[in-house]
Amino acid sequence: MSDPVIVALITGICAVVGQWLISRSQNEKRKEEEIERDTRLEMRLQSVERKLDEHNGYASKFASIQTDIAVIKSDLKHLRERE
User: Fold this and answer.
1) How distant is the alpha carbon of residue 61 from its chain centre?
2) Can you say how many angstroms the Cα of residue 15 is from the centroid of all Cα atoms in its chain?
3) Residue 8 Cα to chain centre, angstroms
4) Can you tell me the distance from the alpha carbon of 17 to that of 20, in angstroms, rounded to the nearest whole number?
5) Dihedral angle computed from the Cα positions of residues 6, 7, 9 and 13, in that order, rounded to the nearest 10 degrees
6) Which positions ≥6 away from 54 have C-beta within 8 Å?
7) How far apart are CA 67 and CA 44, in angstroms?
8) Tally of CA atoms within 13 A in the half-sphere of 22 that contains its CB
9) Angle at 53 between CA 42 and CA 55, to 5 degrees
10) What would you measure as the largest C-alpha separation in the chain, in angstroms?
11) Per-residue confidence at 83, pLDDT binned at 50, 70, 90?
12) Residue 64: per-residue pLDDT
């Protein structure tokens, strides 16, 4: 083989290896970013779930409070009728 062919093969191999290393590095970086994004998303989702659970607790309390208010109104009505 002539010297220019050998130089071209070495250059080609170096270029392919370089591109492979760059691609591998970018893939690893992308995976890390995806993991970080998924972690943040999971934290936000847990926060929303916690707030929803808290809200649902208040909603059930308000239902019982409405029932209590209806009973109190009824009792007041009966007390006023006795007077």
Assistant:
1) 29
2) 40
3) 50
4) 5
5) 140
6) none
7) 35
8) 6
9) 120
10) 120
11) low
12) 85
Q: Which two tokens stand for residue 81?
A: 């009728």
Structure-block tokens of residue 83 = 């007077």
C-alpha 61/C-alpha 64 separation (Å) is: 5
- Looking at residue 79, its amino acid is L
pLDDT tops 80 at residue 58: no
Query: Residue 63 has what DSSP assignment?
Result: H
Indicate the residue type of 8: A
Task: Find the length of the chain.
Answer: 83
Written as six digits, the tokens of 78 are 């009966």
- Tokens 């998303």 belong to which residue? 41
Measured CA to CA, the distance from residue 25 to residue 43 in angstroms comes to 27
